[in-house]
Write a structure and sequence with these properties.
6-stranded mixed β-sheet, 4-stranded mixed β-sheet, 10 helices, 17 strands, 37% helix
């Protein structure tokens, strides 16, 4: 049976898509085997728009010709400028969605007509509509939106009918630029949002702190500043992101960047060790803000941590042990484990597709 509808997680840093086969969600893979498309759009030297990995690399080197975190501009009258050309947020989001549609159709071997797109709880009606307009501009004929926490609960297999009236599900979505905490209860066998709170920190902040740490260590050792060199900073930022994900699996990593700065006599290499403990210390102040967000969500719903039925994590940041340990300590229970929490919204959106 041909698949005609997909679920989409249009995140601030990356977009993912999934569909249902034999009652199971299947993640879209790109031609290079990746399960995400960076939600970044760039303008090349010929004036053509491009999206994904190439646009993300361009964003680091030539930010005046690229734009990311598109979702936050939806529902506004703002025009986004790329090298003196102006676009609406809806137009640029449509470019990303069109890329996902093309990739999915190539993988599935048939045309896609409908999409279910997950959006945050804080989205206003005009933002919902802008997302729908972008999907239609991308070629989807039928579009609906669902709330991200409902998609996450669905992907984890949590049923509203099994939730006691005095219990709630705590969901922490740890994205690139923000953390959103939602408390779900149930009424009449259906989930209801009891409260939601967010703060503007996320895994992208960790990249910034790690890159800054590596740059300062390099300057102390060699007396050379990396900050005036755009390409050097881009390499440093990518190395920091790599180190962050490696530290989610091991206690120690070694970062090697050959020829980080080219000198007249010889290039200067960066070689530095990073530990998981160092990473925690670098972002310790921001972790406290995340605790505040959890507490705000609980207080707003007049719930205590002892009344939680389950704790669910989603987003790429949920791979990092420091976030898992933080949430577990405050919620008085371990989050339900999953090997790929960054895929949960897309999977849930697919499962919630009618």
């Amino acid at each position: 049976m041909a698949v005609s509808r997909i679920g989409i997680d249009f995140g601030p840093s990356a977009a993912r898509a999934a569909w249902v086969e034999s009652d199971r969600s299947v993640l879209l893979e790109t031609l290079t085997g990746h399960r995400l498309v960076p939600s970044v759009v760039g303008l090349d030297r010929e004036g053509a728009l491009h999206v994904g990995d190439s646009a993300r690399r361009q964003l680091l080197l030539w930010p005046e010709r690229s734009v990311g975190n598109l979702r936050r501009h939806l529902g506004t009258s703002q025009r986004l400028e790329l090298d003196r050309k102006r676009f609406s947020p809806t137009e640029l989001c449509a470019v990303v969605l069109s890329q996902i549609k093309d990739l999915a159709e190539e993988r599935l071997g048939n045309s896609l007509q409908a999409a279910t797109i997950a959006v945050p709880c804080h989205f206003a009606p005009e933002q919902h509509q802008s997302m729908i307009d972008a999907a239609r501009l991308a070629g989807f004929r039928v579009v609906q939106t669902v709330l991200e926490p409902l998609a996450i609960a669905k992907a984890y297999g949590i049923q509203a009918s099994e939730l006691p009236d005095d219990k709630a599900v705590l969901i922490c979505d740890i994205g690139a630029f923000h953390i959103e905490v939602t408390l779900l209860g149930q009424q009449g066998g259906r989930f209801t949002v009891l409260s939601t709170a967010q703060c503007n920190i996320g895994s992208d902040l960790i990249d910034e702190r790690l890159a800054d740490h590596l740059g300062r260590a390099f300057q102390r050792e060699h007396g050379l500043a990396v900050w005036p060199h755009r390409k050097t900073l881009a390499r440093l930022r990518l190395a920091a992101e790599w180190a962050k994900w490696r530290l989610s699996e091991s206690e120690l990593v070694t970062v090697r960047l050959p020829g980080l700065i080219a000198m007249a006599d010889a290039p200067v290499d960066l070689i530095a060790e990073l530990t998981r403990e160092q990473l925690s210390l670098l972002v310790e102040d921001e972790l406290r803000k995340a605790l505040d967000v959890i507490e705000i969500a609980l207080r707003s719903a007049r719930f205590k941590a002892s009344q939680l039925h389950a704790v669910l994590l989603s987003g790429g940041g949920a791979r990092l042990p420091l976030w898992v340990d933080l949430v577990a300590a405050h919620a008085v229970m371990r989050p339900l484990p999953h090997s790929a929490p960054e895929e949960m919204i897309a999977r849930g959106a697919a499962l919630l597709s009618p």
